[in-house]
Design goal:
heterodimer; A: mainly alpha; Growth Hormone, Chain: A; B: mainly alpha
Chain lengths: ~400, ~60
């Protein structure tokens, strides 16, 4: 299926992701002016963003449940309003308490309700099952592109106005998300209709997933993904600096991560539709294992750093369409936001540990080598973890099981 | 309509990737934008410290020229 034949909802979802994630990605350039206004060190702003990340992950399962219960459209509209309110309150806040409440709590909640978990849940309900991973890959890749849509505008706003005005313009931009969401109309595909009309409750779906071994294997795999990505993004510049490489080398490596990630996300999605998703996922983690092992083993030069950036970028967010695609394939589209929201939370825990443990181990050993080798082992384990996943739809397994029981009873 | 075979899709992706790399390597502001924010996509955001903030601020050599 050509991407141009995807339903309108997919493109509206992409638009929402570009704005939602684009605004968040631009927060980095607000650090200096905000820290100066509040007459606080950089830790003040960094802590607010770290808290926002944490709450973003914590809210995700609950927002997913709400989306499955009340519909993605309502949740995205509510999220856009909360996001806008958070930005507005941040711009007028004069106390630290109000600042933390608005930028961490409100924006974290708004972000949860307008990003991957809810949008992918909505996309899953309108795209035929056999094209889901490709649609997820396209959505992930486009979401990664958000920074180009928003960051230049944010820089221009900060050049001409103060940071408060820039955030207020962003708050107005949330109205565009609201408008996109109001056009979202779920035209369910035939395969989804049968799943949606299934009388299973949210509680039953949760119990079914939580007692399913495959679901926990998916959790563990995505935990590793979060650990890898956050460790590399946080510590790669310092590691390259330790190897006496120029700052421009680290910049080029990180730039290649960003460029190759956009293509990689789509590529792995396409592969997930064409081949068995669990094997594609294993292949992705085997590639990560080989790439990180080669990077740690070979001499680190300008060229190998750039090559590493490109190779690891290619597998950066490729796990998103495959993981969400696997959850959708096994458990169906009906409660995807809830089930993927929980998986996403595990991912955020991995992210937190990747950034933190990386620094902790470096402080303890005075070297990044032990943590790099740990990531190699984790990637290899994650690759193996996906092999035994039974990716048949759970409804199909239940039917086979019932037939088997009936045969035995006869 | 364009072919949806895997080889055709990969060929199109490779062509666009090559074009993007050429564009980015010849347009420093775009390269800086990617290096500052490219790794923070999706669900990841790094609270920048003094050490990691704006790693692209010193484009003295290599691909930046």
């Amino acid at each position: 299926m050509s991407i141009f034949r995807f339903p309108l909802l997919v493109w509206l979802g992409i638009g929402i992701l570009i704005i939602s994630l684009g605004i968040r990605q631009s927060f980095g350039i607000f650090m200096m002016p905000i820290s100066m206004t509040f007459d606080a060190g950089r830790e003040f702003f960094s802590f607010a963003i770290a808290l926002q990340n944490l709450l973003f992950g914590v809210f995700q399962p609950f927002v997913g449940m709400a989306a499955d219960r009340f519909g993605s459209k309502k949740i995205i509209i509510g999220g856009a309003v909360t996001y806008g309110l958070g930005l507005l309150l941040t711009s007028i806040s004069t106390s630290h308490e109000l600042f933390y409440f608005s930028i961490s709590m409100l924006i974290g909640l708004g972000l949860s309700a307008t990003s991957y978990v809810v949008v992918l849940g909505a996309v899953a309900k309108v795209v035929p099952a056999e094209h889901t991973a490709k649609a997820f890959g396209l959505t992930t890749a486009a979401g990664s592109f958000g920074m180009f849509a928003v960051i230049p505008g944010a820089q221009s706003l900060l050049t001409h106005f103060d940071w408060q005005t820039a955030l207020q313009v962003f708050a107005l931009l949330c109205c565009v998300m609201l408008a996109f969401a109001s056009f979202m109309k779920a035209t369910k595909t035939n395969t989804v209709v049968s799943e949606v009309t299934n009388e299973q409750t949210l509680k039953q779906a949760l119990v079914e997933a939580c007692t399913n071994r495959n679901y926990w294997l998916i959790h563990m795999g995505f935990f590793v993904c979060g650990f890898h990505v956050m460790f590399i993004a946080t510590h790669l510049p310092s590691y390259l600096a330790d190897k006496n490489l120029d700052a421009s080398t680290a910049a080029l490596a990180l730039a290649y991560v960003g460029i190759f990630n956009i293509f990689g996300s789509y590529f792995w999605g396409v592969m997930g539709d064409r081949f068995n998703k669990r094997y594609v996922m294993s292949a992705l983690y085997f590639v990560r294992t080989a790439v990180i092992a080669a990077f740690v083993t070979l001499p680190v030069t300008d060229n190998t750093a750039a090559l590493f950036g490109a190779a690891i970028g290619f597998c950066w967010l490729g796990t998103v369409p495959l993981t969400s695609g696997l959850v959708r394939q096994i458990f169906g589209a009906r409660y995807l936001s809830t089930l993927y929201g929980l998986v996403f939370f595990t991912h955020q825990v991995g992210s937190f540990l990747g950034a933190w443990v990386g620094g902790r181990i470096y402080d303890y050993y005075g070297s990044y080598e032990p943590i790099w080798w740990s990531t190699v082992v984790l990637a290899f384990v994650a690759a193996l973890l996906h092999l035994p996943i039974d990716d048949r739809p759970i409804a199909q397994i239940s039917k086979c099981w019932k037939k088997e029981c009936q045969k035995r009873a006869l | 309509m364009r072919s949806q075979s895997i080889s055709a899709q990969l060929l199109r992706m490779t062509a666009v990737l090559g074009l993007t790399l050429a564009l980015v390597n010849h347009f420093p502001p775009l390269l800086n934008a990617f290096s500052d924010n490219g790794a923070e996509v999706g669900c990841h955001q790094i609270p920048k410290s003094d050490k990691t903030a704006n790693v692209s601020e010193t484009p003295e050599k290599g691909a930046f020229n």
